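Deliverable D5.2: sample structural annotation.
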Amino acid sequence: MSTIPTDPPSANAHEGVEMLLPWYVNGRLSAVETAEVEQHLERCSVCRAELEQCRALARTLHQQQSIGWQPAPGHIERALA
């Protein structure tokens, strides 16, 4: 039984998946795009590391959104004056 060798992913495919990682983290990809990203992640340690960075950034942004914005004391009064 022989196996057919597969070519390594092209640089363009790698860059394309890398650009999709933020949307992958946020669950915004189609099923086809998700499958493509997951297949690439299985064999690309660089993108797995980038994925962790995207996840860390997403966690930070979600934490900051939960805090909410508060104006500095006296800011509203000065703005309305």
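Annotation notes: Residues 1-7 have pLDDT under 50 and may be disordered. The first helix runs from residue 11 to 25.
The annotation will be released with the project's public dataset once the embargo ends.
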